[in-house]
Amino acid sequence: MADTVDPTASLLSLLNLSPADGAQTDEDIFVGRSQQEPRKRVFGGQVLGQSLVAAALTVEPGRLMHSMHGYFLRPGDTDIPITFGVQRLRDGRSFSARRTHAYQNGAPILSMISSFQEPGEGLDHQVEMPDGVPEPESLPTTAELLQGIDHPVAKAWSHERPMDIRHVEKPVYFEAGPEKVARNAVWMKTFGPMPDDQNLHRAALAYASDYTLLESVLRRHGLAWSARGMSVASLDHAMWWHRPLRVDDWLLYVQESPSASGARGLASGRIFNRAGELVATVAQEGMIRIPEQP
């Protein structure tokens, strides 16, 4: 009988970077591994989360990541370790700024700037969490939705993700939904408990935020992830953390797409905890190329 993999332990292992012995530039250097993917292509959310962890390792304790802006420059290879170079741009009285490059074969696959802040008091308001959303426990798991589908991607989505993701609407994994709407919503959390490290929770949320965001673009045009000949890739990713959060408790990720044009689609997302607090906001543009119709 095959050994059962602990998905939360797998996520924590990915986010546990090691120093690069002997490497010395104007950057702090760390090394991370990749989770295996069916196409041997590094999952973008993984590189986001790892880059944020690398940056956080160079910031004094108590300063929390509050924003990041990153560009995906090249596809990554899951068989090659990733080197993370962190440049300390500035350390002020309340804020620290870092630039992180993720490298493979000497070339950057991701370039990110992130900012960290000493928590402070100030103005406070937020948009409201949507009403009438089903509770996550009432929704099927991804494994239940994809049960019986004999496909390597279905296996990866069902059993190899470290996050429990539950779609509020019918998912568009292998079949487009009945309505062409530019919105999507999922509940998500890690399968197991996470350590009490707020920056680690925020990095893990960045990891998870890349899973379903572009679905709001696909739904608007009646497309499934498995559409024959379609090519989808994340181009950039921006994220803002607003309030303390726990990624090992259910979070509602509400997504919408305001525009698609020029083989690109823009999507934004708001992430709420079960108490209705807005904990993060996300935006991403993706390349979406579909085959020409005959």
UniProtKB/TrEMBL annotation:
The lineage of its organism: Bacteria, Bacillati, Actinomycetota, Actinomycetes, Micrococcales. It comes from the Bacteria. InterPro entries: Acyl-CoA_hotdog, Acyl_CoA_thio, HotDog_dom_sf, TesB_ACOT8-like_N, TesB_C. GO terms for biological process: acyl-CoA metabolic process; fatty acid catabolic process. One of its GO terms (molecular function) is fatty acyl-CoA hydrolase activity. The keyword Transmembrane does not apply. CDD domains: Thioesterase_II_repeat1, Thioesterase_II_repeat2. The keyword tRNA-binding does not apply. Residues 178-287 form the Acyl-CoA thioesterase 2 C-terminal domain. Residues 41-117 form the Acyl-CoA thioesterase-like N-terminal HotDog domain. Pfam families: 4HBT_3, Acyl_CoA_thio. This is Acyl-CoA thioesterase 2. Belongs to the C/M/P thioester hydrolase family. It comes from Arthrobacter sunyaminii. Keywords: Hydrolase, Lipid metabolism. It catalyses: a fatty acyl-CoA + H2O = a fatty acid + CoA + H(+). Coiled coil: none annotated. Homotetramer.
